[in-house]
Each structure stands twice: as structure tokens, then as C-alpha cells.
User: Fold amidase from Rhodococcus wratislaviensis.
Amino acid sequence: MSTGQLGSEQRREEEGDRAPGLVEQVNALASGATTSVAATRAALDRIDASQPTLNAFKVVRRTKALAEAAEADRRIAGGERLPLLGVPIAVKDDVDVAGEPTAFGCPGDFPPAARDSEMVRRLRAAGAVVVGKTNSPELGQWPLTGGPAFGHTRNPWNGDHTPGGSSGGAAAAVSAGLVAAAIGSDGAGSIRIPAAWTNLVGIKPQRGRISTWPAAEAFYGLTVNGPLARTVADAALLLDVAAGPHEGDLHTPPPVTVSDAVGRDPGPLRIALSLRIPFTATPTTLHPEVRRGVARIAEALRRLGHRVVVDDPDYGIMFGLGFLPRSMAGIDDWMRKVPDPSLVDPRTKSNARTGRLLRGAPLRAARAAEPRMRRRVGAIFDKYDLVLAPTTATPPPRVEGIDGISSWATDKVITAVCPYAWPWNVLGWPSVNVPAGFTSGNLPIGAQLMGHDNAESLLVSVAAQLESVLRWDLERPGKWW
Assistant:
């Protein structure tokens, strides 16, 4: 249930047991209203209490995080100011944190990472305290977060349902108020999908905006890192802090500061409302309650002065060929890091085998086709400033929705529930999920604002406009965990 359905006394009690917003915590720490040790200990206590039920975290860094928080307090007392100094946040378990394993959802005994990834290094340089690493399905393959390595991560809005994936642990942690914000990754919607299903803002930035180093690129350019938060301002702040290249990165877009776009009027825009599902190999249908949610966003945009017209990008029937070889070859790459491949899901093994078959000429062809695909799909921006589309085709499935089924049956479920997000990963362009309301069963749904090259600032500006009138940030799940 949402907080609107709770009694006022229970609402006050639960709000006191949840993380304040990211910007709010920065201000509280800088003013001395709280300390990093207090904020970090509170976050760790919330995580520990929720683990048996919500199950958002793979790694919890209690001792190390508290030591880092104490050091942050010493620096604050000494007058030092940094964008996130002393603020506890979480990262997904596909990025390296020095001294912690990077299992990416897989079972087995993984060695601790020798050093931080570039993104984590930047978070630490900004003063953030990394309290833990959040759960992902095996190698980020599925939009439901579960597996033999850790069980199921559950949706704070309804524990019988998934928070989505593959950044499901990060989304569950933020939506439940365990932490104010988290970093996930998105290779086919893996930030936007769980954001949609947990009432969060999720930003899939331009390819290369946040470094994936020690990988020069992730999943052959499909996967990017990005923030999940309850508000646009919090997500924008975390994106700005984490953004920036490593000298070894293959993709280095021009720098932007997206926080400056929060509260900035973008002026009247031309927006294409696209409900047509991009080509899939199996039948898919847009759920009527998701359709109504997207229509609600479209109407809010019209009230804000924008012109919204029904129109669709021209994906073409061959567009999926730009995705599959890159995705499967990326799974094969990750499988080579797994200490005991015999422990992983049979579907993971099957996908890795497919990746080995596709990594030659098909992979080269997929990469070579990207400029043509960009021109074809990008023609929509000759007429419009951005595209509005559903983030998913359905509300969140039940947590066991793909348990114990075949690879083909799993693919059918995935294409049925999440056919909308993956094209922007092939193109490398930015997209932002915004909450679009709730189903009759009080399950969150979302819509995505989709832009051309380096359009994060425009998308953030429009998302902040929507938040100012729809106020999704005031909706919180009733605490059951």
C-alpha cells in the first residue's frame, strides 16, 4: 500500500525509519544536523532488518562502511565539503568495490576485487560511503531479480512481485528507503524497468557518460551505469558525481552537468507518444493499465505546455539483430570469470554458448549496423524533441515468474513484459524512467522519456517538470519487510 493508505501515526513512524533524500542528506551532513556515522549506521540497520524478507543486498559492508563514515565525519569537522561527503549509497554487484567479490548474481566463491572500478572511485572521491552491493539476476540477463545464489529479491510495494531487473536489488533498496539512492546498470532496460516497477526515477545515460572501467565498454556498448532515486534532483546529483571517463574508455561523450537542468524550463517541446512495440520474435501486448499510466504522463505534459503527438520511431524488422550478438557475447565474456560455471543456471550456460557462436561475423555485423540504425531511428528527432513510451508492457510479474522454465519460455516472458526499453541500448542514447502511477492492485508502473545523443539535460528538465505536478516522490510503500 502507499503512504496515502496509512494512518497518520503509522506514516510518521515509518517515514522516520527510511532514508531521507540524497540532497537532503548532503545538506544535513554539511550543516551538522546529523553525522555520517549516524546516517550510515541507520542505513545498515535498515538493510540488516530487511534482508530476510526484502533481500536487496548481496554484500553488506558494515564494518568498513562505518569506518569510512567516521573518517567522513572527521573531514566534515575539519571544514571539508564534497558533493556526497558522508552520504551512504549502494552499488550493484556488477561493479568492483575493492576488497569485495563481484559475483554479478552468480553462485560460487568469487575473489575480492583488487581495486575500485572507475565509477566507484569517483563516488568515493566525492565522499560517498558505499554501504553494500545489491542483488542482480545472473549476469543481468533477466528483468526479474532472483537466482540460486541468493533467492528472490522482492518488491517493496508487494512482496509477492518482483522489483524488476536486473538492477532489482538497487531499486528495492531505494524504494524501501534503505538508502537514498543507488547505482545500477542498464543493458536492455535494467535501470528503467525496476525503476518503473518500484516508483522511482531511473536514468539510463548516454553510452560512456559513466565509465564502465575496468571494462573499456560493457556488453559491447549495450550496458551503461546510471542512478536510481526517488526524485529527479537526487538522481541528477548522483549521475553528475559518478559521471566521467577513464582514459581507457572506448566512449567519451562531451561532459554535461544535469543537476543544472532540474527546475529549468525547457520551453514548449514537441513530443512523440510511441505505444507501438518494437519488433519481437514472440507476441506481445501493452497492458491496459500501463497504457493508462502512459496516457496520464502524456496529459500532464500537455498541461505543462508541450505538444504531444502519437508517432513512432522507425525501428525496422532487423533492429533486433543489433542487440542479440552483443548481449550473448557479453554473457560469454562474463562466464569466463565465473569460478565454477557448473553452478550457474542452465539458461546462463545456454546463452553463453550462443554468445560463443555469435561473437565472430554476427557480432561484427551488429556493431557495423549501428550507424545505420541511428540514422533510421534518429529521423524521429527531425520532427520531435523527445519520445514518450511505456517503460514496460505489463506491471511487475510475480517473483517466481521465470523459475524453473526453459530458455525459450523465459525469452517469451521477457519479451511479453519488457519489449520497450532495449532499442535505446543498441543506439547508446539516454532515457529516463518516470513513475506513471499505479495499477488497481497498487503496483507501480512507469513511462520513459527517450532522447537523442547527449540529451540527458533535456530529459532531466522534463522529468523534473513532471515531478513538480505529479509528486510521485510523496508515494511510499507501506512497510512489510
Q: What stands out?
A: The chain has a mean pLDDT of 95. The CA atoms of residues 300 and 466 lie 7 Å apart. The two ends are 13 Å apart (CA to CA). Residues 17-474 form a domain with the Amidase signature (AS) enzymes fold (CATH 3.90.1300.10).
